[in-house]
Write a structure and sequence with these properties.
single chain, 309 residues, Rossmann fold, 8 strands
Length: 309
């Protein structure tokens, strides 16, 4: 297995940092997986998954989003992603996909998105799903706990009072609400995983758990309004294979209710090739859960079956 990194420059300025995991030289790759990480974390946290995929014959790429990880470059800029950040992240995903296709001509490409990354994936497949072999939504959701339009208004008010780059009280409140079902706990982040070691790694990582700026929260919720508009969801190719995988006790997915809502909408639009996996007792980060070996194996089995179609 080979592990490398590189950067590419987006047209509007940011330098995007990318991790790449490749099977050993003697192995001919089967396909490529493009990974979109979640909010307030970074792409290097998917290294174990990247190694697993490489051992199974898959090339994988994971980039740090704007305002995250080595794309942010300095910790003081974490959570600050500039103007029109959500659309910028989507354009970055598209640009990376073009790089992937140039580096791996002819290979099928899967798109994997976790949490906020799954929201990016939902939007990506609306425009470019026809170019993908399949998409995987991990820790996903089809609605917020509140009205996105109202939250945008609240975000604008906070930005006017505190500044665009100030930490968003809305974002902080989201994490607090997610953890309420698991209180009392040691870290306040028990909602992430049952594995205390993995949760502590998140706590100890300065590039995890940082606040989002007011502007990034506004852009993200505006993005959700566009993504979940029926006319946009209906643009997803009806024959696109989709794997939806979440923990049964994932508060981001409202303990499966919000996930099922998304799947029901997709099926009502004519999408039939949808596989849903709910893991009993599992929390939000299924790749860092106590049953992560099972999760990785299920993802691989699904991709192998999709490639065989």
């Amino acid at each position: 297995m080979q592990s490398t990194t590189f950067t590419y420059k987006s047209p509007d300025g940011p330098e995007i940092f990318v991790y790449k995991w490749t099977p050993e030289a003697r192995v001919k790759p089967k396909a490529v997986v493009q990974i979109a990480h979640g909010a307030a974390e970074h792409a290097q946290r998917y290294e174990r998954f990247g190694h697993y995929l490489a051992d199974a014959g898959y090339v994988s790429y994971a980039s740090d989003h704007r305002g995250h990880g080595k794309t942010a470059s300095v910790l003081g800029k974490a959570g600050i992603a500039g103007p029109d950040a959500w659309n910028g992240i989507l354009r970055d995903m598209r640009q990376l996909n073009e790089i992937i296709r140039k580096e791996n001509p002819g290979l099928p490409v899967f798109f994997f998105g976790h949490s906020m990354g799954s929201l990016i994936a939902q939007q990506y497949i609306q425009s470019w799903g026809g170019e993908l072999k399949g998409a995987i939504l991990s820790g996903t959701f089809g609605s917020w706990g509140g009205d996105p339009a109202a939250i945008v208004v609240m975000g604008e008010q906070a930005a006017q009072a505190m500044g665009d780059d100030a930490p968003s009280p809305i974002f902080a409140g989201m994490f607090e609400n997610f953890n309420k079902p698991f209180e009392p706990g040691k870290t306040g982040l028990e909602w992430l995983s049952r594995d205390e070691v993995e949760v502590q790694k998140y706590v100890d990582d300065p590039w995890c758990g940082f606040p989002f700026s007011n502007r990034l929260v506004i852009d993200m919720f505006k993005g959700a309004l566009d993504i979940w508009a029926p006319e946009n969801e209906k643009r997803i190719p009806k024959d696109l294979p989709l794997l939806v995988a979440s923990g049964e006790l994932d508060p981001a997915g409202a303990n499966t209710a919000s996930v099922n809502l998304l799947v029901e909408r997709y099926r009502s639009y004519g999408m039939q090739d949808i596989t849903v996996k709910f893991y009993p007792g599992a929390h939000h980060e299924i790749l860092n859960e106590t049953n992560r070996d099972e999760v990785q194996r299920d993802i691989l089995i699904w991709m192998e079956a999709t490639l065989a179609k």
